[in-house]
Amino acid sequence: MASLVLSNVSKRFGGLLAVSDVNMEVPPGKITGLIGPNGAGKTTVVNMITGLLKLTTGSIKLGDRDISEAEAHEVAFAGVSRTFQNIRLLPEATVLENVVIGFHVHVRSSLFAQLVGLPSSVRETPKLFERGRQLLERFGMSRYADHPAGGLAYGHQRRVEMMRAVATDPKILLLDEPVAGMNDVEATELGDVFKELAASGIGLLLIEHNIRFVNQLCEQVYVLDSGAMIASGTPQEVMHNPAVVAAYLGTKK
Amino acid sequence: MIAQQLVNGIVTGSVYALFALGFTLIFGTFKILNLAHAGVFMSGAFIGYFAVLNGLPLWLALVLAMIGSGLISYIVELGAFATIRGSGQIEFGALISSIGANLCLMSLGQRLSNTKVLRFPFETFPVEFYEFGPVRFSFLQVIILLVVVVLLMAMMFYLYKTSFGRQIRAVSGNERVASLLGVNPGLVYFQTFFISGALAGVAGIMIGLSFNSIHFYMGEPYLLKAFVVVVLGGLGSVHGAVVAGMLLGIFQNLAVAYLPSALTETIIYGLLFVVLLVKPSGLFGSEGVQVGVARR
Amino acid sequence: MMNLVYTYQPLFDYFLLAVGFAYSQQMVLRAGVFSIGSAGFASIGAYFVAIVVKDHGMNAIVALLIATLLGCVGGFLLSIPLARLRGVFQAIATLAFVQIVVSLCLYFDELTGGPQGFNNIPKLVGTWHLLAAVLVTIYFMYVISRSAIGRAFDALRQDETVGATLGISIRKYHMIAFVLSGALAGFFGGMQSLYTFSIEPEMFGFTFLVAALTYIILGGRGTVTGPIIGALIMSVLPELARPLADNRQFFQGILMMVMIAFMPHGVFDGLVLHLRKRRAAARDKLFKEAH
Ligand SMILES: Nc1ncnc2c1ncn2[C@@H]1O[C@H](COP(=O)(O)OP(=O)(O)OP(=O)(O)O)[C@@H](O)[C@H]1O
Ligand SMILES: [Mg+2]
Q1: Chain A residues with CB-CB distance to C270 below 8 A
Q2: DSSP 3-state of B291
Q3: Using the beta-carbon criterion (under 8 Å), do A71 and B295 form an inter-chain contact?
């Protein structure tokens, strides 16, 4: 499996250096943490990885492949998937349809077959829906299959988004504050799901405000503050790093 | 010859600018493409016509047309836009809804005119000409230019020198914040649509007088031209609309002498197409324009 | 009985043509492309078929196929520059395209008849042809909507950033939407030529695109049934009552405003969504009672 590696990545928005010279690695099969106070540049990093933002400097590699300039859909095909900090579901579609759209990268029938209705395309659709149902089962969401996604409770919407990202069968999964607004029980439950996903070989990048939650799950944590990487290491190392205490905990508490 | 066409072009262009101003004002403030602007324009001409027909003097007809079409424009806002505000689909919704409002206005115009072309009674307007060397102005042209210049100056003053201008800009930035600052959004909507409509109404009556022809579908060609004017000038830019309106008027009048009119249209819309692709913010606009999902 | 058929046959024919154009308009809107260019492609198809069939004696079927192909190529070419634009800018650019086609048809009057229109086109298309064409179109629309293309369209319409991060190439699928929309408009434009004896440039202008948009607003953007319902409402409503027919435009206008305000998904799509919500609520209630 391949690691995601960022080398000297920066992003400038006009006069603001939102991310400056960041180096980090997201290895497969592990949960890597990325923490930092509001406006530190975490989401910007994710947007650069997923092809939504141009890099001002630096490069991003997935295994041997340079994806610094790949378009968003190419990044997805390369095996990087994500969730959004402000949940973005397809509101008119059902939960099942939301998940099935995640299988887009696995569609095998040709465009021609899809346009004229050849069997390869006609048979593929029910198969993908079946796979979608299995995924719902795994996340304990089967009973919401035909609900309009827009009407679900907040925690459930987060799960739908996560299932959709998992449906792409990614090598790397970027989770932008996935447990924000959840209570401890829900968060712990999701934490178990993350561990499972990592155990299956996916490399997870977990972005969080909640340091304690990150410490429980991650072996390696990166700390971003005002765009700069101020520390990295095991949760213990990071927690005791004075720069982190000053910048992060200091401003936070 | 060229000088004469230039003068005619400036007069035509000033009416284009007048029409496009209200259109671009609404877009700049609320991000709404108001296609019912065509219907409001027609309403102005109709109100002016019926006022004159009932024996009112022309200046009074003009004032009535302004007020009437201003109010109609506000009714359009209430019927077509207020209902969908905050629904999250304002861009698409407003386009459809304003097409609907325009159909309603056109249909009323058709009823009122019995599908006929209306003409002002003979001698509504003195047909006089003034010669300046090689150039000839008609009295009507002078009046049009005067009215347009006065209205433009009044509007610029209103927009940039009064507290109302600041209020409009506040609401266009963020309605909620604006109301927290004590701005009444309802009042801003009313004033913006009223001004926009009043300008269109004046343009309508001017065009009605120039060609002495008023009919229920007279707005459509001007609406299509307004797209050209506002895109060239930068969607939402008041100054841009004035300059682009003039340029379009001059180009059209110069082209009349040398090109078949269908080809002139091809060139104008071709230009619109190209400007959208090359510089969607317009020739004079600077505001960034949202383009698709690509690394930015 | 025969009288009834005679009275309503033209209405039915126009309804069928309307369905064809409605699908062309829906195809782009479904993919989240704010194009109103169908009128332009319909014009190209109509004039091409009229000219080659009447003046050059080309076989009508061949002519229609080429018209379809022209629509495809036109859609493809238009999609390349338009990939850069979104929202109202896309709408205005396609409107410019429509106006360019109208003015070119007026300009090349030796070929097209100019403002007098192109007349005496052989009437080779009747109700049955139109019906067959619409049924075949419905088949394709259904197949596409059930395929990965349809799902990609639905995703891009609702949130193109999400679609892109799931692997859907916006450029590619918008191009497909343009091509298919152009093909449908070109084909039905040709059919209309062979049906109506005469065509003129303004037939495929602003009024045309307003009508096509209306069908979709009334019916819906995301389902195969939607455009049929939309075209049906617009064809049947004026026939229901005299005042409705006399003030057709007025009621069309009111309908558009009311629909956008209160049923923004259209009659049919709105119904589907509503039922979905109702069923979900009912199931939630059952579940709560069981626990
Ligand atoms: N598209 C943009 N244009 C301009 N500035 C931006 C843009 N996106 C983000 N920024 C700025 O970049 C900085 C980093 O933002 P970012 O959203 O990456 O922070 P974050 O770490 O995700 O914060 P949070 O914890 O609040 O989610 C902020 O100052 C933000 O205002
Ligand atoms: Mg963030």
Answers
A1: none
A2: coil
A3: yes
CA distance B61 to B212: 15
Q: Of the candidates C146, C163, C273, which has its C-beta nearest A92's C-beta?
A: C273
Q: Give the per-residue pLDDT at B292.
A: 53
Share of chain B above pLDDT 70, in %: 96
Q: What are phi and psi of A205, to 5 degrees?
A: -110, 115
> CB of A222 closer than 6 A to ligand 1?
no
DSSP-assigned letter for residue B121: P
Summarised one tens digit per residue, pLDDT across range C253-267 is 999 999 999 998 899
For chain C, what is the domain count?
1
Cα C111 to Cα C43: distance, rounded to the nearest angstrom: 14
CATH of the domain at C216: 1.10.3470
CB contact under 8 Å between B269 and C96, yes or no, is yes
Q: Do A71 and B294 touch (CB under 8 A)?
A: yes
- Sign of the torsion angle spanned by Cα atoms A236, A240, A243, A244: positive
Tell me: ipTM over 0.90. yes
Report which protein residue has its CA nearest ligand 1's atom 24.
A38
Closest-approaching ligand to the CA atom of A175? 2
Rounded Cα distance, B284 and A38, in Å: 37
pLDDT single digits (tens) A21-68: 999 999 999 999 999 888 999 999 999 999 999 999 999 999 999 999
Residue A6 DSSP label: E
How far does residue A225's CA lie from ligand 2's centre (Å)?
Answer: 12
Q: What are phi and psi of A208, to 5 degrees?
A: -150, 155
Query: What superfamily in CATH does domain A4-79+170-249 come from?
Result: P-loop containing nucleotide triphosphate hydrolases (3.40.50.300)
So where are chain A's domains?
4-79+170-249, 90-156
A43 lines ligand 1 (CB under 6 A): yes
| Predicted model pTM | 0.92
Distance B191 CA to ligand 1 centre (A): 37
Statement: residue A129 has pLDDT above 70 = yes
Confidence of residue B294 (pLDDT cuts 50, 70, 90): low
| Cα angle, residue B208 at apex, residues B207 and B209 outer, rounded to 5° | 90
Quote the ligand 1 centre to B68 CA distance (angstroms): 48
Question: Which chain B residue's Cα is nearest to A47?
Answer: B295
Question: How remote is the C-alpha of A14 from its chain's centroid?
Answer: 26
- Closest C-alpha residue for ligand 1 atom 3: A13
Residue C223's domain comprises: 2-290
